[in-house]
Design goal:
The structure holds two protein chains of two kinds.
Chain A (H helix, E strand, L loop, with lengths): L5 H5 L3 H22 L9 H21 L5 H22 L1 E3 L2 E6 L4 E2 L2 H18 L12 H15 L4 H17 L4 H22 L2 H11 L9 H12 L12 H4 L11 H33 L4 H25 L17 H19 L7
Antiparallel strand pairs in A: 1-2, 2-3
Chain B lengths: L13 H35 L1 H10 L1 E7 L6 E2 L5 E13 L7 H12 L3 H10 L9 E4 L4 H9 L7 E11 L6 H4 L2 E3 L2 H4 L12 E3 L2 H5 L1 H4 L4 E7 L5 E8 L6 E4 L3 H10 L5 E7 L5 E7 L13 H9 L8 H4 L9 H11 L8 E3 L2 E4 L2 E4 L7 E3 L1 H6 L3 H11 L1 H10 L21 H8 L5 H8 L9 H12 L3 E3 L4 E5 L5 E4 L4 E4 L4 H16 L16 E7 L4 H4 L14 E8 L6 E7 L5 H28 L13
Parallel strand pairs in B: 2-10
Antiparallel strand pairs in B: 1-8, 2-3, 3-4, 3-5, 6-7, 8-9, 10-18, 11-12, 11-23, 13-16, 14-15, 17-20, 18-19, 21-22, 22-23
Classes of the chains: A mainly alpha, B alpha+beta.
Chain lengths: 370, 634
């Protein structure tokens, strides 16, 4: 089944691997820093994270070894599987902090909304590849991909996990803008989108979600309630100054003032302990990885590869941007992790699988297209 | 496996490639712009306003302390408090507040009169908690120790006194199975949806009313917002949100009546249930031996728990709803009702009891070895003649008996709100087919007719049945709570009687049974003469439930039969006979005789009930106690 070509090895993308490794090592060190004080029982979280990394690397290697074109036949089975998992999580899921997000597999608690992001990328790439654009997409042409995005969006938003839901929306918008849109379609969508915001605000958002946005706009109004996260995170980042407080010495993180500090707010811990210097390095490393991904997209051998690579890049970009903007107080607090950096097995596996796809596309750029 | 054919795919059309490239360039621009935005923000936070934030991180930290809410009180039907709260003082320790912990712990151990290793063990056990979370070193210290610690406050940095409301059991183990107890929430419970807002360390109801009405009793936690410095020392209190106490639960139980029942049962294992016949309200729910609630405060110890588990008297079982026993002769009420209502006998029809009935190749004995002679319906019930009911049972058939038993609420749960209620068993031909895949044997009907064989009932079921028989035929759902009131006295919820329908059987047959039951207590031949009260007419039925086959203990004198093989004693009753108000059902495990073992318990309850009632009347209306009713059968 595996037709492994030796030429593939020559095309291994060491730059991509290098960038991922740097972020991974830094991320692990950071998980250790943010959790070593309060996990004296059971497996330490950084060991768990390392295990996820090794497992994720194996998954990525497996993905690299199979030509990505099989996804053109696998895309709908994957999609259906994802929908079933999301439904399952909604019905039987474990409740963590009031949201039903987890499926307990015994050895691992899967958060199906994480792989759902990647599967949506695959689904949309396949759809747009098959659909002849001609003069560009009309509003009607968009009905199917909008539906494909809307279904998981609703299931995830119902958990409720608005952050991940919105992320699916961003992926959809990015990929749709990337394939050709008619100007008229674009204009209609823009007007529709803008007028939908107040309606969504009034009817769709739950009170706590509205409160989060209001808090974001004016955190000092509620310093002890929902504004607490944003203020504490900004203090953590800001107090890092130029060179930081030193590894394992961040007071905000270590003294437990920073909530979710090993997951969504992992970057705050990093910024506090390593300062402007370390933070800039990390951000540059990230964005280098993302730009490199775009380079992979444009050098792919076929259009499916281009679309797929672009989708994966948009997935990683949006997660990173939303998370970083959130911990720096530029966006409201929504639960989006920093890829490869926040603690969490489901997210890590998803992002490593995505990077595996990128590598896959990269390695086959000179291969035949038969 | 043949290689999976890959989708045929074409190289990109150069024109399209050019367009895609253009869009990739736009994407790159967006990404670079985003990166620039983030880096600018980073510069703004860390460099431009960095000093401000650094200062904030030094001095301005907010810590949120939770304050437990006092739980709602539990009161009886007259408003008498049964369970309230008292403050409990715990010694807690905040490791981040103490510069030299070892010294402090040493001093503290001396004051608390504890071994230092005990305290250190506690600290070690709590290392998984976040650092700022205080560790409890000793619970429920007395006033003297409290004053001592407060005096030395300055030399004990990091040591604090935590005030927690705790349950105060005003009547000790009063109705212990029924009210239940509290305990620290378990990891398994934390996963449950109903406890979504709880945190580890919180107290929750673990059993009984405390658990069922947790939602009403728990109240709202308060929050104390504290500003602390970089070392965790408190700077000032920013804001205090007082806890909001839980709601009060007004039970249907009557403190005085319950106490009388518990005293009467003090040296016995068993159950007493008292129900208002016209509402279903439970006045007494007593199961003995009781649980010692004080043992459960702050978590029960392993040895105490094992002792409870292995106790042959089974104190963990709430016998009122979980104890399933053969009803014995009390079940003759059911057989009698079925027989008259179905018309298989007339009240005047007689049977001859010679001390036994031969059926098939077996001899079915009457409890009275010499026989009752010729008996009609009334005498058969009054003197509890087994042979009469064997004959009647045969005419009825087991399915007819089951039909009436079910309509009287037997063989299924009563629907009381308590957890783990048992439903008992009422056998029928279909039941046996389903359960044992065997055909019903006619001989088995004879055992069922006198409440033996497969028949199992709980004390609550029998009490409810008795109530339905004497209240005109309405089966009420047992109620245990009258109303729930908020701390300000506002009534949040009231519970009104719930009818579970009418029982089968004509008013005529119910009247006949009621008359016979009155004679059980009041006529010379009755089996429960000991229960008779001078000024109130009581009716009832005794029952003796075999635990083992007679053959095993036959020939032994009553005292020499081992305790666990002795018969259970039942008495189910009502009063006043003219216009019944309450039904009293007593079960004494291995009490041997319904009349002599269970009867006096019921008598004590009736006596108290009418004393209270008349006493209240005298006080309220200033009228003398009513004249004793006529006693027709003396």
């Amino acid at each position: 089944m595996l037709r492994f070509d030796r030429r593939l090895l020559l095309n291994f993308d060491w730059v991509l691997i290098g960038a991922v490794l740097v972020v991974a090592l830094v991320g692990l060190a950071n998980v250790y820093s943010s959790t070593h004080l309060y996990t004296n029982v059971g497996t330490p979280l950084y060991i768990k994270e390392l295990t996820y990394y090794l497992f994720g690397a194996a998954v990525a290697l497996l993905i690299v070894s199979i030509d990505y074109r099989v996804l053109l036949t696998l895309n709908y089975p994957l999609y259906i599987g994802m929908i079933l998992l999301l439904l399952f999580a909604l019905v039987f899921g474990k409740t963590v902090a009031g949201a039903q997000r987890w499926i307990n597999l015994g050895f691992f608690r899967l958060q199906p909304s994480e792989p759902a992001k990647l599967i949506l990328v695959i689904t949309l790439a396949s759809y747009y590849y098959r659909k002849e654009t001609g003069k560009g997409f009309t509003l009607l042409d968009l009905a199917v991909p909008a539906l494909l995005t809307g279904l998981p969006f609703i299931l995830i938003a119902k958990q409720p996990d608005l952050g991940t839901g919105l992320l699916l929306g961003f992926i959809f918008i990015s990929m749709t803008l990337f394939v050709k849109l008619r100007w008229a379609t674009l204009a209609t969508l823009l007007c529709g989108g803008i007028s939908a915001i107040p309606i969504a605000w009034k009817f769709f958002l739950k009170p706590y979600q509205r409160q989060r946005v209001e808090t974001f706009l004016n955190p000092e109004n509620d310093p002890l309630g929902t504004g607490y996260h944003i203020i504490q995170s900004k203090i953590a980042v800001g107090s890092g100054l130029i060179f930081g407080k030193g590894y394992l010495k961040g007071t905000q993180g270590q003294l437990d003032f920073l909530p979710e500090r090993h997951t969504d707010f992992a970057f705050s811990v990093w910024a506090e302990e390593w300062g402007f210097f370390g933070s800039v390095l990390l951000i540059i490393c990230y964005f280098f990885m993302i730009l490199w991904g775009l380079n992979i997209a444009i050098s792919a051998r076929d259009k499916f590869g281009v679309l797929l690579a672009f989708g994966v890049v948009s997935l990683i970009f949006w997660q990173a941007f939303i998370n970083l903007a959130m911990v720096m107080g530029l966006l409201p607090v929504v639960g989006v992790p920093l890829p490869l950096f926040s603690y969490g097995g489901s997210s890590l596996l998803t992002n490593l699988a995505g990077l595996g796809l990128l590598m896959n596309i990269r390695m086959r750029r000179y291969m035949g297209t038969s | 496996m043949p290689p999976r054919p890959l989708a045929k795919i074409n190289k990109i059309d150069p024109v399209e490639l050019k367009m895609l490239k253009k869009r990739i360039d736009i994407a790159m621009a967006v990404i670079i712009f985003s990166a620039a935005l983030l880096l600018t923000r980073l510069w703004y936070l860390q460099i431009y306003r960095g000093d401000e934030y650094a200062k904030l991180s030094e001095i301005n930290r907010i810590r949120i302390q939770e304050i437990a809410a006092p739980r709602g009180n539990i009161l009886d039907r007259t408003g008498q408090p049964i369970i309230t709260n008292r403050p409990r003082f715990n010694v807690v320790w905040n490791r981040e507040d103490a510069p030299n912990p070892d010294e402090v712990i040493k001093d503290l151990a001396k004051i608390l009169n504890e071994d230092i290793s005990v305290l250190l063990d506690r600290i070690r056990a709590a290392t998984e908690n976040p650092r700022y979370m205080p560790t409890r070193l000793k619970e429920d210290i007395d006033w003297e120790t409290l004053v001592n610690i407060e005096n030395k406050h300055l030399s004990l940095p990091g040591v604090r006194i935590e005030v927690m409301p705790s349950r105060d059991y005003l009547y000790g183990d009063f109705a212990s199975h029924f009210v239940g107890y509290l305990g620290e929430i378990s990891p398994a419970e934390l996963e449950e949806k109903r406890y979504a807002t709880y945190q580890s360390g919180d107290q929750v109801g673990k059993q009984g009313v405390e658990k069922i009405f947790e939602e009403y009793l728990k109240g709202e936690k308060g929050r104390n917002y504290l500003e602390v410095d970089v070392h965790g020392f408190e700077q000032r209190q920013m804001q205090l949100q007082d806890p909001y106490p839980g709601n009060d639960l007004h039970l249907t139980l009557d403190v005085e009546l319950q106490r009388v029942a518990e005293e009467a049962m003090a040296d016995k294992a068993g159950a007493v249930v008292v129900m208002e016949v016209n509402t279903g309200n439970l006045l007494v729910m007593c199961s003995t031996p009781p649980l010692h609630l004080q043992e459960f405060v702050g978590g029960i110890s392993g040895t105490a728990w094992n002792r409870l588990l292995n106790d042959p008297l089974n104190p963990l079982l709430n016998k009122t709803i979980q104890g399933q026993y053969p009803p014995g002769s009390t079940f003759k009420i059911v057989t009698a009702l079925a027989a008259i209502s179905e018309g298989v006998i007339t009240p005047d029809a007689t049977f001859f009891c010679g001390g036994a009935l031969n059926y098939g190749n077996r001899r079915y004995g009457c409890w009275k070895k010499g026989g009752h002679g010729t008996v009609d319906f009334h005498r058969a019930l009054v003197e509890s003649c087994d042979v009469y009911f064997y004959s009647v049972g045969m005419r009825l058939g087991v399915d007819n008996i089951a039909k009436y038993a079910n309509s009287l609420g037997l063989g299924k749960k009563t629907g009381i709100e308590l957890e783990h209620e048992k439903g008992g068993i009422i056998p029928s031909t279909a039941w046996k087919q389903q359960r044992y895949k065997e055909k019903w044997q006619e001989g088995e009907t004879l055992s069922v007719a006198i409440g033996q064989g497969y028949v199992l009932t709980t004390p609550l079921q029998l009490c409810r049945m008795t109530a339905a028989v004497v209240n005109g035929g309405t089966l009420y759902r047992p109620q245990m709570v009258n109303r729930i009131t908020a701390p300000d006295g506002k009534v949040l919820k009231t519970f009104s009687p719930v009818s579970d329908g009418k029982i089968l059987g004509s008013a005529h047959s119910l009247g006949l049974i009621r008359n016979a039951l009155v004679d059980v207590v009041n006529s010379p031949g009755g089996t429960a003469k000991v229960v008779k009260l001078p000024d109130v007419l009581i009716g009832g039925k005794t029952g003796t439930a075999q635990v083992v086959n007679l053959a095993q203990v036959g020939g032994m004198s009553e005292k020499s039969i081992p305790y666990k093989y002795r018969d259970h004693a039942w008495f189910t009753s009502f009063a006043p006979a003219e216009k019944p108000e309450i039904a009293v059902t007593v079960l004494v495990e291995h009490g041997q005789h319904g009349g002599s073992a269970a009867g006096p318990v019921a008598k004590a309850v009736f006596k108290k009930y009418f004393e209270l009632k008349n006493g209240i009347k005298t006080a309220a209306e200033g009228t003398p106690p009513p004249v004793a009713p006529d006693e027709k059968d003396e």
